[in-house]
Structures are given as structure tokens and as C-alpha cells.
């Protein structure tokens, strides 16, 4: 009866164990196919048996199951030998498991979801061994020998965090499984039995044990006549030859951590990649995906270098930049002045940050900074849509109280009679201004009045159509100062919005993932998500006006050697500063603000990098970063201009008093130029020993004892 029961145990076999897809590495590639980050629950890359060096196959079979190709899953000879040894020792001292049995155990451990299930799969008892034997026999009926060996080589743990032979070859020797040599193959084969005690990354003692295991494998291969005694001796006399290669996982150890974090958050939050957050997280960690991204290393390095030249990681003021390709929305670069990660002692302020500074909160960013005068482009675009011409404008006062005429998109008045608007220092004055001059000089009061004329809600709608959303995900603040950029934004969103004008009114949602290649090799292309949101003629007109920012406006003298358009952004109180600009091929936005809080720490009287700033304006820091990053980012890209505007529709217009004001400004500029031209002559006369003319200059000076009297003029030569 006992014999019959035993026979039935091994004749009435259960189905082969259910195999879960093995956890593999998910790799992130740049647009040129180079890897820059990876995620994994287990560092593993599955390979076909044909992609494993024959000597590696021989080594693993020799040391783990020399009769693998002869038995049917149960090595009776090996099992009885182990049984005898363990009985004499009074416990488990020798393993008699075949490769198939070891594969079964690994399958059960891999499928376990709790610690209890994992402990049960590893339990050193007779019941577990019998179950393992029965499943091994079932597996032998299901697969051919080479298929079993392939599965074993991919599932086995080799130590040092390497799961599977391909990951082990890379981790131990910086090579592939297909290129393993005899000594390397013997080393890996020896590591499988005791992967923790022979982990070479843990120190000299572990490496000595690994070498002893390698030599044992070589002796076993020689004993089976797989190699000669001379080959075994030569290999044993050779050093281990380890070339340990780190296998970092996650964004903190990526070459481009901010871009990596954006992609990671996109994978975890987008329903396209899974119905639930847990499903998406599991797919990313275990999926073995290859994700091609839109990252351009040339643009990325250009942005990083430009920021590094102006802002130090130690500064509390931070700069961030994003570059986006018009017509596709593909994000080409994301850079920040701070390094990604935690500061020592988890300090809040230091050279590192865990915020994805170029992105919104949905992609790991912070609250963003007020976008300032960059928002004036949405009022400009709205006015041009409504039929305004380039020369149209009006006279502006020196200050403005938005006490009437402003309604939000719900139709409610949102006037603010308690606020007094002034023009930001260095970005324009009162007086008559047209759409062109008001934009070039970035005149706050002009745009507040223009916004009231075209309708606050219409401006908000224009901004929304161009992808404008707050960095924190909250609804836009529909207030009179909307056109002055009171909403907090992130560089990715602003760059994508400005890219719409470069694409002649076609808005594309920011895109970081271009293609996903599954573990089965199936490719899923991620197309751009674009929509025509502004008529082409209107976009061409906006481009025409914004080109003047470089030639006649706040960025005069800071061109990039090719046609470009853009807008500075300086907030009242200097709480933050921006520059957003574009060419037909690339758009970029740069923000600067204090990471401790822009309201509490305005950008006045600050030292950033190695330079002191009385006040930071859009043209004084973000603008130069933009210029210095765009030049190299576009190197090799053929310069192209923007299509000219329809002058029959947008040309002309009239602003009362503007011609006279411009003429007076030219006269002042001329007089200033004459004075500057005379200075060298005075210096020349002084060098010749001629007596210089006495010039009276009024300089502010307050005597300490004058009781607050007016400043007195002083004479200087």
C-alpha cells in the first residue's frame, strides 16, 4: 500500500506551476537611443538561451546538475546521495535538487506575494520537497530541456542585486551573457548556490569565497571532460577579473534626474499606462519596458551649462529651464540650478532638492513662480484676434487702480479698488503706447487697460487654449492682474504654451514619452496630442511683435544670431523673474525665484552665483540663461525665420500722441549719445595736459546734521 501510494504520488502529477512574468528592468532612453535611467524591482533582463555563451551553459549544468540532459526531472542518484548525507548528519547538509527542481522553487518564490508564502516555498522539509519533485516532473512534461535551462538562467539570483545571467554578466564583469569567458562563466555558476555569502560587492572575504566556488566549478568541468585539466589550471591561476558595474535604479542616480522624474510621474499618473495607480507602479517596476523619450542630450547639456554659469546650487535662488519642440510638444530638456536629491541631515536648504523644479506638482514639482509679464502675450493675442492693429493704442497714466470694468468667466465683477498698479522698474513708462511699444517696453498699465478693453475672460480663454494651467493644479486666478502673471507657473507649461506661437497657433500637449517597447517586443508609439487653437495669421502677428522684444524692447542686444521671439517677465516686487522665447524649431522658458518662498524673499539686493543684483529682472538673469542655452541647443539646426504678418489685416493703426512721444524719445537718445561721444574727447584733452572744463553735477547727499534738508549740489571735475 505504501509503494502504491508513493507510485500514485509521482504518476498522478499536478499541472505545471503557474509562471508569473518575471520582474525585469524598465529602461529610459533618450531620443538617440542611449539609456539614462532605469527602474526595477529586480535587476533582470531576460535573454534567449542562444544569447548565453555555451561555456556559461556548460558551467551551470556541470556544477548544479551534471545529469540534467539525462534524467526526467528527478535525479534519483543525486537525490539518494543527498538523502544519505543528510540522514547521517541529522539535518540538511547537501542539496540533491535537479535544475528543474530549482526552477520550480524559484517560480514559487517569484509568485509569492507575502513573506509567509515565500517562507513556505523555501521550507527545508519533506512535504515541500515532494511537492517540488511532483511539479518538476510536470514541468519536464511541459518544456524541452533547453527551455528549462533558459528559464533557470533567467530566474536564478547570482548575488550583488543581479537576477538572471544577463544582469549578472553586466553587474560582475561589465559584459553581456553572450561574451562571457571560461573564468567569468565559472565564477557566475559558482555564485548561484551561495549568492549572499559570495557577493563580491561586500568585501574581500566574500570575494575569496567566490574564488573558491569558481575553482570548484572549474574542477567539476574538468572532471566531466568539458574542459581540459590545463584549461582548468590556467583559469584557476587567473584572478577573478571583476569589473563591478553599478546598476543604479530610480531617478536620483540618473544622469538627467528631473527629466527622469517627469517620465516616472507620467507613467504613474496617466491612465493610458494602467487602470489603477498600483497597476501602473507594478508595470513600471516589473514590466521590463524600454521607454524611448524625447530628451535631446545636446539641448539638455546646453541648458545645464547655461544655468550653472549664472546660478550656484548653494544659492537659495533657483533657476529652472524647460525646452519644448513646436508642432510636437516633445520636451527636449529639463534643467535646474540645484542637484536632485536630499540634503545631508534632510536640510530644507542646500545644494539639492527633491522638487522637480522645471515641472508642475503633478510631475513632482513645487508650487511654481508667478509668471509675471510673460502673460501679456495672451492679452496681445486676444487683442489681435479681435481686430486690433499693430499701431493701435492709447495714452496710459502713471498709475492705475483696477476699480471697474473687470469680469471673470462666470460673469462676476472682480474689480480691485484697493490695488494700485505701477509699471515695473526698467520695463516701461506711462504715456502713449501702441500694441507694439507697449509689448516691447512691457508696460504694465498699458496691458491692464488693454485687458479691460478686450475682456478679462477672453484673455483667460486664450491662455487656457494655449495650455496654461497653474503649477499646483488649482483653477486659474481670474483677477484684473491676470495679464501681469499673478498665477504660479512651471517652465514646462510656459515653454509649451509659447511653442504654440512658433507652431503658428498649433498647441501640443507637453510630451516626454515617444514610444514604449514591451517585453514581448511590441512597440506602442505615443503620437503628439495637438490642436489648432489660434488662427495662423494671428500667431504670425504675435511672432512679429515679439521679435521686436529682441531688437527694440527689453531684450535688445541679447539675440541668438537667428530669428527669435520672446517676452520677459518681471513681477512687481521682484518676487520672481522669467524669460520665455522661441524660434521656429525650439521654445524654452526660464524661471528664477527663491526656493524658500518668493513673497518672503524677493529678488532684490541678492548675490546669485558670483554676481550681485540690485534687482533681478527678466532681461538681467533669465534672459541671459535663455540666450546662452538656446545658441548651443540649436547648433546644427538651420536658421529659419517666421512667416511675415498679414499687414493688410494688422498693419497701420493709430495711437494719439505716440509719434510725438517717439520723436522726443529719439531726441533724448540722440542727446545722450552726444554726451557719451564727448566723453572720450574730454579724456583726450586731459591726457594732453589741457585744463578740463568744470562740469556741475548734482549728486544726492544728505548731511548728517541737516535735519532732513534738501540734497545740496556738489561740484566735480
TrEMBL record:
Task: Describe the location of the Penicillin-binding protein transpeptidase domain by residue ranges.
Answer: 323-585
Q: Which GO terms describe its molecular function?
A: penicillin binding; peptidoglycan glycosyltransferase activity; serine-type D-Ala-D-Ala carboxypeptidase activity
Sorted UniProt keywords: Carboxypeptidase, Cell shape, Cell wall biogenesis/degradation, Glycosyltransferase, Hydrolase, Multifunctional enzyme, Peptidoglycan synthesis, Protease, Transferase
Ranges where the record places region Disordered: 637-677
Span of domain Glycosyl transferase family:
33-221
Record Pfam families: Transgly (PF00912), Transpeptidase (PF00905)
Keyword field contains Membrane: no
Q: Which GO terms describe its biological process?
A: cell wall organization; peptidoglycan biosynthetic process; proteolysis; regulation of cell shape
InterPro entries in the record, alphabetically?
Beta-lactam/transpept-like (IPR012338), Glyco_trans_51 (IPR001264), Glycosyltr_51/Transpeptidase (IPR050396), Lysozyme-like_dom_sf (IPR023346), PBP_transglycosylase (IPR036950), PCN-bd_Tpept (IPR001460)
| Chemical reaction(s) catalysed | Preferential cleavage: (Ac)2-L-Lys-D-Ala-|-D-Ala. Also transpeptidation of peptidyl-alanyl moieties that are N-acyl substituents of D-alanine; [GlcNAc-(1->4)-Mur2Ac(oyl-L-Ala-gamma-D-Glu-L-Lys-D-Ala-D-Ala)](n)-di-trans,octa-cis-undecaprenyl diphosphate + beta-D-GlcNAc-(1->4)-Mur2Ac(oyl-L-Ala-gamma-D-Glu-L-Lys-D-Ala-D-Ala)-di-trans,octa-cis-undecaprenyl diphosphate = [GlcNAc-(1->4)-Mur2Ac(oyl-L-Ala-gamma-D-Glu-L-Lys-D-Ala-D-Ala)](n+1)-di-trans,octa-cis-undecaprenyl diphosphate + di-trans,octa-cis-undecaprenyl diphosphate + H(+)
Gene3D superfamilies found in the cross-reference section: Biosynthetic peptidoglycan transglycosylase-like, DD-peptidase/beta-lactamase superfamily
Q: Would you tell me the Gene Ontology cellular component terms?
A: outer membrane-bounded periplasmic space
Ranges of Basic and acidic residues composition bias in the record: 664-677
Q: Which family does it belong to?
A: In the N-terminal section; belongs to the glycosyltransferase 51 family.
Annotated protein name in UniProt: Penicillin-binding protein
UniProt organism field: Nonomuraea mesophila
Amino acid at each position: 500500500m505504501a509503494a502504491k501510494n508513493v507510485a500514485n504520488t509521482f504518476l498522478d502529477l499536478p499541472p505545471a506551476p503557474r509562471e508569473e512574468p518575471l520582474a525585469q528592468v524598465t529602461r529610459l532612453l533618450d531620443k538617440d537611443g542611449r539609456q539614462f535611467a532605469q527602474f526595477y524591482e529586480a535587476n533582470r533582463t531576460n535573454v534567449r538561451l542562444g544569447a548565453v555563451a555555451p561555456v556559461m551553459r556548460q558551467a551551470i549544468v556541470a556544477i548544479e546538475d551534471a545529469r540534467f540532459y539525462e534524467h526526467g526531472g528527478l535525479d534519483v542518484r543525486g537525490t539518494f546521495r543527498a538523502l544519505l548525507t543528510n540522514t547521517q548528519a541529522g539535518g540538511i547538509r547537501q542539496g540533491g535538487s535537479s535544475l528543474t527542481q530549482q526552477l520550480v522553487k524559484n517560480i514559487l518564490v517569484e509568485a509569492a506575494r507575502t513573506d509567509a508564502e515565500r517562507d513556505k516555498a523555501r521550507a527545508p522539509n519533506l512535504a515541500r520537497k515532494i511537492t517540488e519533485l511532483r511539479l518538476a516532473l510536470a514541468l519536464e512534461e511541459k518544456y524541452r530541456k533547453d527551455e528549462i535551462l533558459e528559464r533557470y538562467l533567467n530566474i536564478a539570483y547570482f548575488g550583488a542585486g543581479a537576477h538572471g545571467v544577463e544582469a549578472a554578466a553586466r553587474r560582475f564583469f561589465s559584459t553581456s551573457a553572450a561574451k562571457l569567458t571560461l573564468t567569468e562563466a565559472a565564477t557566475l555558476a559558482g555564485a548561484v548556490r551561495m549568492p549572499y555569502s559570495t557577493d563580491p560587492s561586500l568585501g574581500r572575504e566574500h570575494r575569496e569565497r567566490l574564488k573558491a566556488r569558481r575553482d570548484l566549478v572549474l574542477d567539476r568541468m574538468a572532471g566531466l571532460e568539458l574542459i581540459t585539466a590545463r584549461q582548468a589550471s590556467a583559469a584557476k591561476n587567473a584572478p577573478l577579473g571583476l569589473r563591478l558595474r553599478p546598476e543604479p535604479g530610480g531617478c536620483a542616480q540618473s544622469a538627467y534626474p528631473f527629466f527622469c522624474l517627469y517620465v516616472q510621474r507620467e507613467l504613474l499618473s496617466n491612465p493610458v499606462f494602467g487602470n489603477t495607480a498600483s497597476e501602473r507602479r507594478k508595470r513600471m517596476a516589473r514590466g521590463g519596458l524600454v521607454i524611448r523619450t524625447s530628451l535631446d542630450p545636446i539641448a539638455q547639456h546646453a541648458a545645464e551649462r547655461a544655468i550653472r554659469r549664472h546660478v550656484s546650487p548653494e544659492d537659495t535662488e533657483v533657476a529652472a529651464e524647460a525646452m519644448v519642440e513646436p508642432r510636437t510638444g516633445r520636451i527636449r530638456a529639463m534643467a535646474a540650478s540645484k542637484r536632485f536629491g536630499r540634503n545631508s541631515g534632510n536640510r530644507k536648504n542646500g545644494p539639492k532638492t527633491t522638487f522637480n523644479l522645471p515641472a508642475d506638482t503633478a510631475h513632482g514639482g513645487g508650487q511654481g513662480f508667478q509668471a509675471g509679464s510673460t502673460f501679456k502675450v495672451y492679452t496681445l493675442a486676444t487683442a489681435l484676434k479681435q481686430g486690433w492693429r499693430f499701431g493701435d493704442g492709447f495714452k496710459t497714466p502713471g498709475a492705475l487702480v483696477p476699480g471697474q470694468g473687470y469680469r471673470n468667466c462666470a460673469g462676476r465683477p472682480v474689480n480691485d479698488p484697493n490695488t494700485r498698479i505701477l509699471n515695473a522698474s526698467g520695463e516701461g513708462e506711462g504715456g502713449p503706447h501702441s500694441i507694439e511699444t507697449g509689448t516691447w517696453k512691457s508696460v504694465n498699465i498699458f496691458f491692464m487697460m488693454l485687458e479691460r478693453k478686450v475682456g478679462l475672460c477672453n484673455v483667460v480663454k486664450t491662455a487656457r487654449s494655449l495650455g496654461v494651467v497653474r503649477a499646483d493644479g488649482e483653477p486659474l486666478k481670474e483677477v484684473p492682474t491676470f495679464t501681469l502673471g499673478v498665477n504660479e507657473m512651471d517652465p514646462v507649461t510656459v515653454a509649451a504654451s509659447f511653442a504654440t506661437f512658433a507652431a503658428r497657433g498649433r498647441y501640443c500637449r507637453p510630451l516626454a514619452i515617444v514610444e514604449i517597447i514591451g517585453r514581448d517586443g511590441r512597440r506602442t508609439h505615443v503620437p503628439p496630442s495637438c490642436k489648432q487653437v489660434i488662427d495662423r495669421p494671428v500667431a504670425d502677428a504675435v511672432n512679429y511683435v515679439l521679435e521686436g522684444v529682441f531688437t527694440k524692447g527689453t531684450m535688445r542686444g541679447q539675440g541668438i544670431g537667428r530669428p527669435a521671439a520672446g517676452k520677459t517677465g518681471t513681477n512687481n516686487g521682484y518676487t520672481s523673474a522669467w524669460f520665455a522665447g522661441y524660434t521656429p524649431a525650439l521654445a524654452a522658458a526660464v524661471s528664477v525665484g527663491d526656493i524658500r518662498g518668493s513673497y518672503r524673499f524677493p529678488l532684490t539686493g541678492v548675490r546669485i552665483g558670483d554676481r550681485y543684483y540690485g534687482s533681478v529682472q527678466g532681461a538681467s538673469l533669465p534672459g541671459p540663461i535663455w540666450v546662452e542655452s538656446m545658441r548651443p541647443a540649436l547648433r546644427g539646426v538651420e536658421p529659419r525665420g517666421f512667416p511675415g504678418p498679414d499687414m493688410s489685416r494688422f498693419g497701420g493703426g493709430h495711437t494719439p500722441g505716440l509719434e510725438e512721444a517717439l520723436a522726443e524719445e529719439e531726441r533724448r537718445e540722440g542727446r545722450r549719445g552726444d554726451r557719451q561721444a564727448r566723453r572720450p574727447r574730454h579724456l583726450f584733452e586731459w591726457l594732453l595736459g589741457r585744463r578740463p572744463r568744470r562740469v556741475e553735477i548734482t549728486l544726492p547727499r544728505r548731511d548728517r546734521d541737516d535735519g532732513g534738508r534738501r540734497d545740496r549740489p556738489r561740484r566735480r571735475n
